[in-house]
Amino acid sequence: MTATDSEAARVGLLARIEAKPEHAEEVQALLTGALTLAQEETGTTVWFALRLGPTSFGIFDAFGDDEARQAHLGGKIAAALLAEAPRLLIEEPDIRPVDVLAAKLPTA
Predict the structure, then answer these.
(1) Nearest-10 Cα torsion for 51, 88, 81, 106
(2) Which among 37, 45, 49, 63 has most CB atoms closer than 10 A?
(3) pTM of the full structure
(4) Whole-Å CA distances, 45 to 12, 33, 77
(5) What is the DSSP letter of 46?
């Protein structure tokens, strides 16, 4: 990891999301639409929304420090997901903090 990579992606979040079968496409749309919100977050270095299976989704994002990670957890994406969770999801998202050991990030 270069100095720039290690500074820009020290910590992250890994979220697993399980949609109710009848709402899987809505969850996909919610996550796809959240990209614009992630792009607005100056502290979010990388953000990925993933489809892991028919009703299983994930989010991985990375940050330069814990302050940026906490800001993201209190931001618009988390608020939108948690507001819709009872209707769309089988259970609350499983959101875990992670330490980034190595990263390759795009160069400017």
Answers:
(1) 10
(2) 63
(3) 0.89
(4) 9, 18, 15
(5) E
